[in-house]
Amino acid sequence: MAELGFSKTQGKKGNGSRAATPAQVTEMVMVEARKRGLNWFKPHMAAGMVGSFIQETGNFRNDVINFNVRGDNGSAHGLMQWRGKRYTNLLAYAKQSNANPADIRTQVSFAIEEGMPNSRFKDFGTVKAFRLFPQTK
Fold first, then answer.
1. What pLDDT score was predicted for residue 16?
2. Which terminus of the chain, N or C, has less C-beta within 10 A?
3. What is the rounded CA–CA span in Å between residue 70 and residue 47?
4. What residues contact 122, with CB distance under 8 A and at least 6 apart?
5. Contact 74, 84 (CB under 8 A)
6. How far apart are CA 33 and CA 39, in angstroms?
């Protein structure tokens, strides 16, 4: 992600600063969608996801992204405030990918992975949202 001005060291300190800009995260989402062959995935769809990420993280706060600050009484983690099985799946996905689960890029990749109907990490609600995305304008 260096081409986006996003360094690998960002997001490691829990100081409340921003891990990335909305434009950077939107580009991350689009890159992930393209990598997975989701040619129907459009920028306004990525912007919708990013809006959700902004809400869940308090505008991409480092301390939320890197799990230092957790929601729902400490049970929710990261970009989508994953918890329970979805959080366990994030950790397994990161391990399988040899990636850091607290890295925003890993979390963006996992957010797309959850919407893939054939993924072992699929989430019913996310798959349903992805099926509805092509109808959005």
1. 62
2. C
3. 24
4. 113, 114, 115, 116
5. no
6. 7
